[in-house]
Design goal:
- By secondary structure, the protein is mostly helical.
- The protein has one domain.
- 76% of the residues lie in helices and 0% in strands.
- The protein is built from 4 helices and no strands.
Length: 85
């Protein structure tokens, strides 16, 4: 019984602590919101390679503008990795 509870807790924790997104942004507004949130996280964490993160955020913003949501998802994952999310 304890094992089942522990597994359920682990799954819940993983889902909560996991990436802020599970699929590409649904539309430009969602994509822009994701870009803004990542920029705020980067500013708060002050990553060692801040210039590279800024460049990736610019790339993400362009992908949002162009409606390239699958590419935006991949870029967002790269940004999260760079800022240690």
């Amino acid at each position: 019984m304890f094992h089942k509870i522990a597994v359920a807790a682990l799954i819940s924790t993983t889902l909560i602590a996991g990436s802020a997104f599970a699929a590409p942004p649904a539309d430009q507004d969602a994509c822009n919101k994701l870009s803004f949130e990542l920029a705020e996280k980067a500013a708060a964490k002050k990553p060692a390679d801040a210039a590279k993160v800024d460049e990736m955020i610019g790339k993400l913003e362009g992908q949002c503008t162009d409606g390239k949501f699958a590419e935006a998802e991949a870029t967002a994952k790269d940004i999260e990795a760079a800022i240690g999310q």
